[in-house]
Amino acid sequence: MAYKIIASQCTVCGACEFECPNAAISLKNDIYVVNPAKCTQCDGHFDAPQCAAVCPVPDTCVPA
């Protein structure tokens, strides 16, 4: 299951984009989005999804 970014909570800080090992996060229409085809929840890279770990706003990067 991929992660998603809650658009109404995203501050567009960019922290998540550079932490994603699969380049699944990108800026679209002034908001960050997760490409579910690329998101592996950081499996094989980290113990936890890095978008959620680095996001400064709690519960903004969540399971889809």
Automatic annotation (TrEMBL):
SUPFAM superfamilies, per the entry: 4Fe-4S ferredoxins
Domain of life of the native organism: Bacteria
Annotated keywords: 4Fe-4S, Electron transport, Iron, Iron-sulfur, Metal-binding, Transport
Cofactor (UniProt): [4Fe-4S] cluster
Gene Ontology molecular function, alphabetical: 4 iron, 4 sulfur cluster binding; metal ion binding
Residue stretches making up the 4Fe-4S ferredoxin-type domain: 1-30
InterPro entries (UniProt xref): 4Fe4S_Fe-S-bd (IPR017896), 4Fe4S_Fe_S_CS (IPR017900)
The protein's name in its UniProt record: 4Fe-4S binding protein
Organism, scientific name: Bradyrhizobium macuxiense
